[in-house]
Task: inverse folding
């Protein structure tokens, strides 16, 4: 994480990804503009780095120039007027390729196209390193796009926040942490599912139960289901790689979520690390691990009772139940440590009325 002025930014797009995008964009330019002697117009300040990378990869005759769009208050009207500064070349009859670092609303591009068409260019093409489709409000077709990105505030690779960050060789995004991400923890039968249902309504969060997702896949005989079944039936953990990929996919299905309740995940340290990485890529973190604490014998009784109606084979057999509880303590209690070290662990008494337990959980969540 880096700090620029008063804001924090986290890594977003690595240098090799940016480089690969410019390779492809430049090779398309090279292919399309082999004998038109184009004049590349870099839009300052943001595009300087992108322009130099494109130039290095363009293998035909060409020229390059830079412009700035300056807006100033019109003297006779109160509206903003935009003026192009810096262009000395005669561009009439030329192929102009405008090189932009980023296109978001498209206002700047629209202005530039109007200005260059007025100057009598034979054609005006647009190449942008980054493009935010969600923010774009114009119909103008962008001829060359390096990378489409979500509507986030980014810096680096020429782009700045109040002047800083242009020299970063990778792209960072603003760290925005309005999300509440709860890891709901506790041994099998502790009431995680029940409480998650209540809490997701109350706090408008997306509930992801890895156990439920596996069971759904088993029921629908998917590839994932078949793979997971053999482990689940024995009360063992599904391998990390399978579980982590599945969880990432579930989180990605909810890009607008205000936060998540992770139920049954993470169960291993590798899963916890991967969750931290995933949330960090969204500018967020785990807010807290809230753990329901319930005595083993109470758990066994609850699960046997549930097994009479749940149809879950892993609830029907006391041996499997005891193994799941043992696996929980052996392999997953380590996570209590993991989150305790980060001051994020909250133990909550899980015995009592459902609403009473919800109250206890809420009193923790409300302080986050
Ligand atoms: P649950 O419904 O959370 O008790 O999960 C039921 C079963 O699904 C577990 O006993 C595991 O076999 C599998 N499972 C669920 N979540 C995970 C996870 N995070 N990692 C590995 N296996 C999992």
Result:
């Amino acid at each position: 994480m880096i700090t620029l002025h008063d804001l924090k930014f986290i890594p977003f797009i690595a240098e090799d990804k940016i480089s690969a995008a410019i390779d492809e964009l430049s090779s398309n330019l090279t292919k399309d503009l082999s004998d038109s002697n184009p004049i590349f117009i870099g839009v300052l300040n943001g595009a300087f780095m992108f322009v130099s990378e494109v130039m290095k990869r363009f293998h035909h005759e060409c020229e390059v120039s830079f412009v700035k769009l300056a807006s100033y208050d019109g003297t006779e009207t109160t509206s903003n007027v935009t003026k192009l500064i810096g262009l000395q070349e005669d561009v009439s009859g030329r192929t102009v390729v405008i090189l932009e670092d980023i296109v978001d609303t498209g206002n700047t591009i629209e202005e530039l196209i109007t200005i260059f068409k007025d100057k009598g260019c034979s054609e005006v093409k647009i190449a942008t390193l980054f493009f935010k489709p969600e923010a774009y409000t114009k119909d103008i077709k962008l001829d060359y796009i390096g990378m489409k990105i979500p509507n986030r505030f980014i810096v680096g690779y020429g782009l700045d926040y109040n002047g800083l960050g242009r020299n970063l060789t990778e792209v960072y995004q603003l760290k925005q942490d309005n999300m509440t991400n709860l890891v709901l923890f506790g041994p099998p039968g502790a009431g995680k599912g029940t409480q998650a249902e209540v809490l997701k309504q109350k706090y408008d969060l997306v509930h992801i139960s890895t156990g439920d997702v596996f069971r759904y896949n088993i029921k629908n005989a998917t590839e994932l289901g078949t793979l997971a079944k053999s482990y689940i039936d024995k009360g063992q953990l599904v391998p990390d790689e399978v579980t982590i990929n599945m969880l990432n996919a579930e989180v990605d299905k909810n890009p607008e979520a205000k936060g998540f309740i992770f139920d049954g995940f993470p169960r291993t340290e590798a899963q916890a690390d991967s969750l931290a990485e995933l949330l960090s890529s969204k500018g967020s973190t785990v807010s807290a691990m809230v753990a329901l604490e319930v005595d083993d014998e109470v758990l066994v009784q609850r699960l046997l009772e549930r097994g009479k109606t749940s149809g879950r084979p892993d609830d029907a057999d006391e041996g499997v139940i005891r193994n799941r509880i043992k696996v929980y303590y052996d392999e997953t209690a380590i996570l209590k440590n993991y989150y305790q070290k980060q001051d994020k662990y909250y133990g909550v008494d899980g015995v009592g009325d459902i609403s009473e337990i919800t109250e206890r959980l809420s009193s923790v969540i409300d302080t986050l």
Notes: The two ends are 21 Å apart (CA to CA). The pocket of adenosine monophosphate is lined by residues 188, 210-211, 214, 231-232, 235-238, 243, 264-265, 267, 271, 324 (CB under 6 Å). The CA atoms of residues 206 and 260 lie 5 Å apart. The first strand starts at residue 2 and ends at 4.
